[in-house]
From TrEMBL:
Name of the protein in question: Molybdopterin-dependent oxidoreductase
Alphabetized SMART domains for the sequence: Molybdop_Fe4S4
Domain 4Fe-4S Mo/W bis-MGD-type, residue spans: 1-56
Cofactor(s) essential for the protein: Mo-bis(molybdopterin guanine dinucleotide); [4Fe-4S] cluster
Family matches, as PANTHER family: NADPH-FE(3+) OXIDOREDUCTASE SUBUNIT ALPHA, RESPIRATORY NITRATE REDUCTASE
Superkingdom field: Bacteria
Taxonomic source organism: Kluyvera ascorbata
GO-annotated biological processes: cellular respiration; nitrate assimilation
CC terms in the record's Gene Ontology section: membrane; oxidoreductase complex
Family the entry assigns: Belongs to the prokaryotic molybdopterin-containing oxidoreductase family. NasA/NapA/NarB subfamily.
Amino acid sequence: MTETRTTCPYCGVGCGVVASVVDGAVSVRGDSEHPANVGRLCVKGAALSETAGLEGRLLHPSVDGQQANWERALDVAGERLRAIINEHGPQAVAFYASGQLLTEDYYAANKLMKGFIGAANIDTNSRLCMSSAVTGYKRAWGADVVPCSYEDVERSDLVVLVGSNAAWAHPVLYQRLVQAKQQNPQMKVVVIDPRRTATCDIADRHLAIAPGTDAGLFVGLLRAIAERGAKLDDFTDAPAALEAAQPWNVARVAAFCGLPLAEVAAFYQDFIAAPRAITLYTMGINQSSSGSDKCNAIINVHLASGKFGREGCGPFSLTGQPNAMGGREVGGLATMLAAHMNFEPADLARVARFWGTERLAQTPGLMAVDLFAAIGRGEVKAVWIMGTNPAVSLPDSHAVSQALKRCELVIVSEISSHTETSRYAHIRFPALGWGEKNGTVTNSERRISRQRAFLPAPGEARADWWIIARVAQRLGYGEAFAWQHPHEVFSEHAALSGFENEGQRAFDISGLAELSREAWDDLAPVRWPVSRHAHTLDLKRGWRADARVRMVPVSPRGMQAQTQALYPLILNSGRIRDQWHTMTRTGSVPKLMQHISQPIVEVAPQDAQHFGLQHGGLSRISSLHGVMVAKVVVTDSQRRGSLFTPMHWNDCFARQGKVNGLVAPVVDPHSGQPESKQTAVRIAPWQPAWQGELYSRDEVPLAGHVTWWRKAATGLHHLTLCSDRLIEQDILVWCQQHGWQVQVANAGDLWHLLAWQGEQLMLGFWSSHRLPEVDDSLVCRAFSEAPQTLADRHALLSGQDLARPAVGKIVCSCFSIGEKTILDAIEKQGCRTAGELGERLKCGTNCGSCVPELKALLASTTIKVTVL
Ligand SMILES: Nc1nc2c(c(=O)[nH]1)N[C@H]1C(S)=C(S)[C@@H](COP(=O)(O)OP(=O)(O)OC[C@H]3O[C@@H](n4cnc5c(=O)[nH]c(N)nc54)[C@H](O)[C@@H]3O)O[C@H]1N2
Ligand SMILES: Nc1nc2c(c(=O)[nH]1)N[C@H]1C(S)=C(S)[C@@H](COP(=O)(O)OP(=O)(O)OC[C@H]3O[C@@H](n4cnc5c(=O)[nH]c(N)nc54)[C@H](O)[C@@H]3O)O[C@H]1N2
Ligand code: SF4
Ligand SMILES: [Mo]
């Protein structure tokens, strides 16, 4: 058995994975030698083997909906791009790339667009994710330097998590923090989030801040630090930053942020007193119409208190995607040039020299939201989308879809055969996916790791860099794209980082430029800089002419979203534990669908009462831009006036489940990042006439009035359905048209149907005025092994396995342990701690991500006991 060391393709923690294939079956475990995870994996990483199959993969190129061979697909792409460039100029074409591409792919895309097509219209999904953080670092240090490591998190005295649900979004880093806190009881953890999230499980303090107001909190902290005397002479603009902070006393902050004054004061006291403090921030900060100012407000407090550039300290933006950092390094944003260089005369001349081009773009290109608006207006006539699904992830997704529909040429490089974006593609290129592709990624702490191939290329799929290089050839730039192997692309990228760089540029991996193919293959994870001149990252200086670090003056602003009588609530959106973005990979793994299996909306109890919402019932949420349907979860972890819904569901997995249909395309003026976390909405209960579960071997055509959610089921279509109009007759007729034998149970509002072809179960449908409880494992078993006796068939018609108790909603995905089983263990078997539950049921003992939920269940039952 050969084992391959590679890197997880999901989040920016960048865990090392050891993968092997035995008899065609992939298995994975955490790499104990990788410094990011030292052997751990979270539930998504551990389920990687279940996404390695070829079901749903895009395996062949196609042109205008027809399968084509590579020669033709590449020729057509080249011809059509060339024609548009010739007629309308290079500004009429654009690339939209992704933090999930490898560095080599990204480098190739950036070089082709900026260097040879000659426009800078290459932007990426990192615009929706990291661009405020990039702007923050660049404004402070003059370079996009992330100044911290995971060890700094472990070695701090105060860890502040702001706008970050790391327990679910960066699980392995969170587990490292949990462990560090256990080992150092002096360590304090503060979580700042309008919601009480799973991350609050280890928090000493949770500040349930009003949405969008974090800048006020940090500007007030700057004032408090300065009041106690701070040495600020080293920083440019420090007086202006202090002046801007002057009005922000604790009382004003408390009022602005909707927090108790004592809580704010205590947080300031903790921060000032802590010898070492580190602030981890992610989307609750970045995805804001003033996200870059918020980043600088955070950076400022670390500068002013001297809590940066040393162990356990600093403003640490956690990157979301596996290679968001690599994309930033190659310059894959429309506002950067290459290798951390900018659109400035000296940089432009240098990059043109290095690439040997006379066509280099001279000015920044369009940022994501503007780019799709320009496509909508017909100004950009061709777009090549690689490794991202903008029809789902961009705000105002309806307008994005309309823009793509009207666009003259849409090229999509994908691994998945069905995505919302691909529906609009004229040309589709099948890309290699995780386990097949070969290259490098950089994680949140600037650590470059190898992703290595251990599976053969499926079908006709090819590496993204290869596809880009071949199109470059068709456009007449073959010489500059003549690489034969990703190692050559990497070497060129590394050489550019060191080209005419005598320490003026922070990003320098020139020490890796001369690696042999073997040495690159074996490259161990390493943090940059890796300079051939042995340059290190001195954070006391800035990478600009005066070599100083800047404190950006920040005047806190609230969100742009405005509540009003018609739209009185603020809708927040983000991640759930077991799904990845637009679900193209995790949405088909049954195990990962168990935890939360349909769009939900979390509502505070007072709001639920006010708007007439029932826990477990359905609701319609609408904004000025669109509407979605979600199942109501009433919880006191939600702040009054705010709702929360997952970002993941989309038209491939639900009808009306896509949150970005509601979000306005409002962006930060400096970073261009959308305000994805705040949308003014209203919510109303929806009691459909009926709800049901449908399992079928073939896709059943459904009338437009039916709302549905797709569940993952191996080899089957499983949908949860509801509507105001009945569809029983439609299903019956459809089954009869196929000549299947139909068995129906009909009593009151309950309507159950089984359809058989001989001994084989073809379809099962269970409906009622409420969602019927159907035993999923019983039904799936019946599809693979049909019940033999008539009695068993009748039992199946009830949807319940009468011999086996139901386990309830799955809490621990690793071991499939359900809520009812856990409650039983607490109530009947006397388990009193998460540890005891783990000993009895194994739940929470693998990745640990469900421990906060186990504790919540323990707490809920304890309360019951004391009340009695
Ligand atoms: N399971 C899972 N993990 C992932 C991903 C995934 O899809 N699934 N995606 C990865 C990617 S690309 C990213 S970018 C990261 C994102 O990681 P996170 O940013 O941690 O995740 P989110 O859930 O988007 O948002 C974090 C929190 O911001 C809070 N928030 C909303 N508004 C505000 C506010 O005004 N102020 C404050 N302080 N907080 C606010 C939300 O309530 C939410 O709990 O996750 C990465 N990891
Ligand atoms: N409302 C709201 N919207 C959000 C967010 C939010 O919190 N709220 N978060 C935003 C953030 S932070 C992010 S990062 C984005 C993410 O949004 P997207 O980038 O749109 O989401 P993904 O599902 O990760 O899309 C990746 C696509 O690339 C494909 N793919 C996977 N591997 C490869 C490969 O090797 N090559 C190629 N060519 N394709 C591949 C996948 O099948 C998938 O279709 O969403 C953003 N949108
Ligand atoms: S923490 Fe992130 S990188 Fe690590 S296994 Fe989980 S998803 Fe993968
Ligand atoms: Mo992200």
